[in-house]
Amino acid sequence: MLSKSSKYGIRAVLYLASTASPTKNIGTKEIAATLNIPAPFLAKTLQQLSKKKIISSIKGPHGGFFMTNNNLEKSIFDIIYCIDGQHKFEECFLGYPECSDLEPCVVHDVYSPLKKSLLQRLKTKTILEMAKESTTPFDSLENLIADGSL
Amino acid sequence: MLSKSSKYGIRAVLYLASTASPTKNIGTKEIAATLNIPAPFLAKTLQQLSKKKIISSIKGPHGGFFMTNNNLEKSIFDIIYCIDGQHKFEECFLGYPECSDLEPCVVHDVYSPLKKSLLQRLKTKTILEMAKESTTPFDSLENLIADGSL
DNA sequence: ACCTAAATATGACTTTTATCATATAAAAAG
DNA sequence: CTTTTTATATGATAAAAGTCATATTTAGGT
Question: Where do the domains of chain A lie, and which CATH numbers do they carry?
Fold first, then answer.
């Protein structure tokens, strides 16, 4: 479905939204460690998002990534679009190029509405809202505890 | 979502279901040409399906692939499972390993039901039923006409 | 029996995706 | 003004997915 880059990106942004702030930046290493994501790979993904103003960053000591209020108004769809591109949600489930409401494939009538409601959700909910209602935070609170961070 | 192999496989099986029969086998080349699929690639996929008894084949002159009544009772899910494996439908949309009804990710409540109804459809409808209700047949009737086959 | 047409089996090649590594640039701290 | 810390940029490597090519087997036709 989504590429790993997108998934990693979304998880990282959600983590940022709930933990970082303009006054408290978070670096790639910390995010990667907390989320069990390969750090150099995540870095590249975060740069893409930063370039498209979906997240913010500052360099130097105590630098890192964070979310402005503007960033928090972005949607998860924005992240996916930035990393994987639009086409992710435009393909027919069976890959028929001409599949549409007029010329539906055999699962179009069931797949298409499902896709629409998922898309609707991904486009309308803001990162902020998503982060607030998130109950499962991150992979490895255990790790933080083991590290002594918690 | 699905791998290309799966998509190609499904389209080929649907084509077989509506066109071939135990007395009228169809070869890889014809299927590939009609569906605009690379022939050697399709061949490999059809072999996998044949080995798992989802389609049937006979070798030699006038040989090819076809569907028995038994084959026609299989589902599209069987095809996907044979080619891509189960895990295709078990992953969390955002890739959280521990995502579940108890520990849902932020799109779990919307994604999970959608996935279930799609799966339900893919598992319960037989190939035969699918083929019958299919209105969009294949990519390139034009090609066949241009070739003089029609 | 021999030839031919087709599936089968295997492997090589290419492209994409994912991962890792290195060098540069910027900003804070001493 | 130098050092250190972190993002940024770029590219190298690895793994997976997709594509193509070749040889082998089987079965029908002659």
Answer: 4-86+126-147 (1.10.10.10)
Other CB atoms within a 10 A radius of the CB of residue B139 amount to: 15
Contact assignment for B134 to A105 by CB distance below 8 Å: yes
Calpha distance A119→A122 (Å, rounded): 5
Cα A19 from Cα A16, distance rounded (Å): 5
pLDDT tens digits, A69-92: 999 999 999 999 999 987 788 888
H or E stretch covering A28 = helix A28-35
Rounded CA separation B90/A46 (Å): 27
Please, what is the Cα angle at B149 between B145 and B150, to 5 degrees? 55
Does residue A63 approach strand C to less than 7 Å at its CB? yes
Helices assigned H by DSSP within chain B: 4-19, 28-35, 39-51, 69-72, 76-84, 108-124, 127-133, 141-147
Q: How far apart are CA A119 and CA B145, in angstroms?
A: 39
| Shortest Cα distance, chain B CAs vs residue A58, angstroms | 27
The string of pLDDT tens digits covering residues B30-41 is 898 888 888 889
Which residues of chain A lie closer than 8 angstroms to B110, CB-CB? 117-118, 121
Check CB contact under 8 Å for B117 and A122.
no
If one compares A115 and B138, the residue with the highest pLDDT of the two is: A115
